[in-house]
Specification:
The complex is a heterodimer of chains A (198) and B (423). Chain A has 198 residues and is mostly helical. Chain A folds into 2 domains: 99 residues, Orthogonal Bundle (Cytochrome Bc1 Complex, Chain D, domain 2); 84 residues, Cytochrome Bc1 Complex, Chain D, domain 2, CATH 1.10.760.10. By secondary structure, chain B is of the alpha/beta class. The chains are: A mainly alpha (198), B alpha/beta (423). At the A-B interface, α2, α3, α5, α9 and α11 of A face α9, β22, β23 and α10 of B.
Amino acid sequence: MHHKLSRILAASVLGSALLSGATTASADATGAMVSNPCAGCHGIEGASQGQAPVIAGLSQMYLASTMKAYRDGQRYATIMDRIAKGYTDAQIDAMSGHFANIGWPTNNQTVDADQAAKGQKLHTSSGCAGCHGATGVSMMPNAPRLAGQYAGFLEQQMHDYKDAAKAIPPGAMVMRSMLAAMSDEDIAALAAFYASQK
Amino acid sequence: MAFNRREFVKLTGATAGLATLGLPLVSRAKGSVSIVVIGGGYGGATAAKYCRAYMPDAKVTLIEKNKYYYSCPFSNEVLGGESKIEDVRFGYDGIASHGIDVVIDEVTGVDPAAKSVATKGGKNVSYDYLVVSPGVSFKNNIEGYDEAAMEKMPHAWKAGPQTTLLRKQLEEMEDGGVVMLVAPPNPFRCPPGPYERASQIAHYLKHHKPKSKLIIMDSKDKFSKQGLFMEGWKANYDGIIEWRKAADDGKVVGVDANEGILRTEFEEHKPAVANVIPAQTAGALASAIGLTNESGWCPVDQRTFESSIIKDVYVIGDSCIAGKMPKSGYAANSQGKVAAAAIAAKVGGYDMPDPSYVNTCYSLITPDWGISVAAVYQYTPEGIVGVKGAGGLSPMGAPESTRKAEAMYARSWFRNITTDLFG
């Protein structure tokens, strides 16, 4: 509830900033300016159309803590560790606020229905729903939405989270222990389930 | 494979529109402003779209010579056979759908005093602000490499018919034939490009012409992402790719296109296929307008991309001197957004927020082996510099899973950035 309210507040601050003239607007615009170059890989306004993750509509807390974890070597990445090092805390907070204020985009991925059904069973039986919600839409600001996220990204991330040689944030250690029991096929099925959700 | 990763349906609700990009929108009272963008590639298409987004009431005109744009990024994959030329071809309907006036015509002159652009088709378009993104043009650093020679020894460094021509030559080559790729001296468009191309052509040779090989004839003694390319070649194309650096007589100084001969200082070579990439300078239009300095490139205020030579004219992309940023599609895309924000700030009478620039260049060594170089840039009084400690290369010796993930994200990048440009 608090989270929802803070988003509404943020939205109204954004709205008034747009109306109130140069100084406020420019201050607000920093989030937009610093977020502009992200589109090349993450899509216009964070609505990726490739396998790079959608970053629109995730909570500010998750986005900011993820960027800082990438930056500080606490989360393995193919490229975001190198990019995140280019930003200060203030810039990360501004861009996270920017993307958190955009709605989650609707997308359609073609997934194998049997795979998705198998993934749904695993999602429920393995306890993933506890943090990520019954359909992969999390109500907790520190657990990202998985529903509608790209399967390729999710699958790759789960493999990274499972791999003990790769850094993951302390809060994600529970993921590592849950994924330890999963086969490659299980992980692919889970990814298919989340990708199939709207 | 549980599902085909490439077979996802196009997003339906995610055409995020352009109205929510977050900068203060310039008010209707300023609605009479006219912005003309010349060149509809990575820089110009971005600038036109973002000018329109920041100034919804401005008149934005994009003037582009060709009806279709062929992307240089991912055109190497067309040469390698993993993509078709249609996959890198984009029209301008998407841009027009945002209310931008798209004019397919050739610019014949710009009058900075009258603030007007003349076209071959007889149009005169007046502007308050002009954005110029003309890419590169070729220098005559290789004797005999003229326009006729380009039809026999394609450069394919501007994608389109040249790409198709080189691909056809590779397909028609007999197994056992030698391909020579002539790599240009610095600075040039897309520093890792020639070496990704070598990888892609080698991918084709390995699977279709296994007795053939490719020799890179280089004007340089080192190149972008060298360690990563060398590692990838050793793993995937051992004995297929040879790199001959300048110090080992790799520098091609002349051609006889009719005889199919490449000449270095000491030798003559007669490859079955020659891909000759000449030295480069700012797009011809930039020098015609008078935007270049003695270096052949265009000096700009690196905070706004306004020309240091002509007021109210902005130069972005390969033609401009952008500090430490490379000449790449991603860099041009970043610069287009900054130039649009700078113009919007000027029109709206507010201070432009601090600009932010990113560059990421992916290269595909095989369809499952991607590598990257990335950087985040900031503006300083000395110009655009990389943020210290940020950016850099993919790690050496990374597991195959990492290379495969980077290949996936490379394709994702192409889809997303071309949507940013043309969607």
